[in-house]
Amino acid sequence: MIRRVVGLGCLLVLVATACSSGGDSSGDGTDSAGGVDPAECGLDAFEAADKPVDITFWHQLTDSNEEALVALTEEFNTSQSDVVVELVAFPEYEDVFTKWRAGIEGGDLPTMAVMEETTLQSMVDSRSTVPIQACVDADDYSLDDYLPQAIGYYTTQDALRSMPWPVSNPVLFYNKTLFEDAGLDPEVPPRPSTRSASTRSRSSSRERPTTESPCRRRTSSTSSGTRRATSST
Question: How many independent structural domains does the chain possess?
Answer without folding.
Answer: 2
